[in-house]
Design brief:
This protein is about 30% helix and about 30% strand. By secondary structure, the chain is α+β, with helices and mostly antiparallel strands. The protein has 2 domains: about 100 residues, 3-Layer(aba) Sandwich (Aminopeptidase), CATH 3.40.630; about 140 residues, Aminopeptidase (3-Layer(aba) Sandwich). Helix 3 links the parallel strand 4 and strand 5. About 35% of the residues are buried.
Amino acid sequence: MILLKFLPKGYAVIRPVDNDNLKAFRILSNMPDPWACRIACLYESYSGYEGLAQFAVQEAESGLSAVLSKYGADFTVFALPSADRTEIENYIKMSGYGSVHGNITLFYEDTEGTVMKLTDRIKLFSDKPTETDITLSYPDIKEIYRLMKECEDESFIVPRYEDIVVELSHRLRHGTALCCRADTDGKTVSFAMTAALSETAAVIGSVCTAPSYRRKGLAKGCICEIVRRLDGREIFIICAKKNIGYYQGIGFDKVSLTL
C-alpha cells in the first residue's frame, strides 16, 4: 500500500481499487448519493469483468477523497470536498472518455438529466392503488424494449436491443437492478426500473407508460412498489426537464448535489 504520509503536503494520487483500499472504496461508494450509488452498483455488477469496467480511488493525506468508475467510455465520479479536481480531470482525459457524470464540476458538461430525490413518501403513497396488475419481478425484456421504443422521443433515446438484453440480464442476475411492471391484456403497458442500486440508495432511471394507458396512475404504482421493496434507502430519479413537474407532483424534489 502507498504510504501517503510520506507524500508531499496536498498531494493526491489516483490508483485502481485493490485489496488495500477496497474497504474504504465500499464505504465511500455506498454513501446515499446517486453517483456514489451508480459506482457501487457497477462494482457489484462488473468488478470481475475487467474488460468492461474499471474502478479507481483518489487518495490523499487525509484518506480517500474520491471514487471513480469507467464503464465502457462513461466515467462516473463521486468526490468529497477535499478532492483534487485537477488530478481527476487529468486522469479522465488520459484514460479517454465518452461522457462524465458525477457530483463534481469538471471540464465536461453533464447532460444526464435532472436529479430528483424522493422527499415526500406520504404524497407518493397518497392515492388509491390502480386496479391493474402490478408486479415486481423478472421482466420480459422483449416486452420492456417494445414499450421503451413506443415511448421513445428526443429526450429518451433507446439503446440497441442487444445492448439492453446483455446489460439488463446481467444486472438482474446479480441483484443490482429492480424492475416493476404493470400488465394488462397480456402485455406490459407500464414499468419502472432502477438504473443503479446500492446498500443505501437507488436511482430510478427508466419509467415508461404506453401512450394509451397514461394518466391512470400506472407509472406511479410501479414506482411505489420499488420504493416499498427498498424501504430505508434514499430514492433518486434522473428525468428529462419536461417531466420535472410530474415527479414533483408525486413527492420528488430537485436536488443540487454538485460540489
